[in-house]
TrEMBL record:
Species, as recorded: Candidatus Enterocola intestinipullorum
Pathway(s) annotated for this protein in UniProt: Amino-acid biosynthesis; L-proline biosynthesis; L-glutamate 5-semialdehyde from L-glutamate: step 2/2
Gene name tied to this protein: proA
This protein's name: Gamma-glutamyl phosphate reductase
Catalytic activity field: L-glutamate 5-semialdehyde + phosphate + NADP(+) = L-glutamyl 5-phosphate + NADPH + H(+)
Record key words, sorted: Amino-acid biosynthesis, Cytoplasm, NADP, Oxidoreductase, Proline biosynthesis
Function recorded in the entry: Catalyzes the NADPH-dependent reduction of L-glutamate 5-phosphate into L-glutamate 5-semialdehyde and phosphate. The product spontaneously undergoes cyclization to form 1-pyrroline-5-carboxylate.
Family, similarity comment: Belongs to the gamma-glutamyl phosphate reductase family.
Coiled-coil spans in chain: none
Length: 415
């Protein structure tokens, strides 16, 4: 596929992909997993070229960095995708009309899917495995920060496809630069769907400028609410995991909301965060209860920029609320409809939170770090949708299909 004809080649490849059996797809993915493990050294060498150009203090550094362990985990995810049932040709519904026409609604691929993403080379593997299994050609537009890594990964995928008698145009990597991003977003009639993965700025840009339909994913402004009835030990573990497991990912905690009747427990609740050097930007009430009980160098006044911010760093907002209703109001105002959590032993409060919070994933007594396709049993994920059309939450194989109606008749005509 070259820069002049990639659109036409992608459409032609999507027709060819329709003819590849499920068994052949699974076999190819298993071979790709094996080759990924065999070629770790060359992938890591390319990744190191990208890492050398990025400041280690950048929140994106962790996302960009590959390692032998991460590549082995990626290979494991590819094998998991291969083991999952095919999402294609599923009978969604069927019926016979009074005139004798027989209708079936069956799942089909979108065709060609474009992915625009930032410095996360693991996405290249995830997207290909999910798109290939679901019968979609993928056109990848990664960030320039990860171009060497992505080129090595896509080169490996193309080689494995070619060696197994399949079309290497089932995957295409766009050149670095904004010009190719614009070209992808303008490919009406060739690309069926675009999925952006990255920060709020990237997602907003793609949504506002793409002429191709877009599913919004990724941007996560995430809150946890510690209720009046919250269990302290559960709360400590949940908040620590949600905030510090991986601070650069979209399901990481950004703001902790605490019921005012539990402020006396605030120092204990936040103590594990100090061990991870988490900076806390606190409102006046919570600041009073933490002063002298949390490292002074890590404690700051909240300002107008604290809430509604996706930190992607060892930094967190903290706000006192007087009721669960005020907590839900805060989430409604500042959240991004990604993932939200309540820590509570009150069933009525739990149910109110589950019912009234408008987000793709709403948790009771569990950290938002579980918002992940792999954790949900989907294998890998292509992104986490924060919108309500077509798909919501972690997106994997079923979400990469559309459907069509198949109608069988015997000479009927419409009056």
């Amino acid at each position: 596929m070259n820069c002049v004809s990639w659109r036409e080649a992608a459409v032609a490849a999507s027709r060819k992909l329709n003819l590849v059996s499920g068994e052949a797809k699974d076999s190819l993915l298993l071979k790709l997993a094996d080759e990924t493990e065999k070629n770790m050294a060359s992938i890591l060498e390319a990744n190191d070229l990208d890492l050398q150009k990025m400041d280690k203090s950048s929140p994106l550094y962790d996302r960009l960095q590959l390692s032998e362990k991460r590549l082995k985990d990626i290979a494991s995810d590819i094998r998991k995708v291969a083991s999952l049932p095919s999402p294609l040709d599923r009978l969604i519904e069927s019926r016979t009309l009074p005139n004798g026409l027989y209708l079936e609604k069956r799942s089909v691929p979108f065709g060609v899917i474009g992915i625009i993403y930032e410095a996360r080379p693991n996405v290249s593997f995830d997207v290909f495995s999910l798109c290939f299994k679901s019968g979609n050609v993928c056109v990848l537009k990664g960030g320039s920060d990860a171009y060497n890594s992505n080129a090595a990964i896509v080169g490996l995928i193309k080689r494995v496809l070619t060696e197994n008698g399949l079309d290497p145009d089932f995957v295409h990597l766009m050149p670095a630069g904004r010009e190719s991003t614009a070209e992808l977003m303008d490919a009406v009639g060739y690309v069926d769907l675009i999925i952006p993965r990255g920060g709020a700025g990237l997602i907003s840009y793609v949504r506002d400028h793409s002429r191709v339909p877009v599913i919004e994913t990724g941007a996560g402004v995430v809150q946890a609410y510690f209720d009046e009835s919250g269990d302290l030990e559960k709360g400590k573990a949940i908040i620590l995991n949600a905030k510090t497991r991986r601070v650069s990912v979209c399901n990481a905690l950004d703001t902790l909301l605490v019921h005012e009747k539990r402020l006396h427990d605030l120092a204990d609740l936040c103590a594990p965060l100090a061990g991870k050097n988490v900076h806390i930007e606190a409102d006046p009430k919570s600041l009073t209860f933490l002063t002298g009980h949390y490292p002074a160098g890590l404690l700051h006044h909240a300002d107008e920029h604290t809430f509604g911010k996706e930190f992607m760093d060892y930094r967190m907002g903290l706000r006192t609320v007087s009721s669960i209703g005020e907590a839900i109001d805060h989430i409604s105002r500042y959240g991004s409809k990604h993932s939200e959590c309540i820590i509570s032993e009150d069933k009525e409060a739990q149910n109110k939170f589950l019912r009234e919070v408008d987000a793709a994933c709403v948790y009771v007594n569990a950290p938002t770090s579980f918002t992940d396709g792999g954790q949900f049993g989907m294998g890998a994920e292509i992104g986490i949708s924060t919108q309500k059309l077509h798909a919501r939450g972690p997106m994997a194989l079923p979400e990469l299909t559309s459907y069509k109606w198949l109608i069988r008749g015997n000479g009927q005509v419409r009056s």
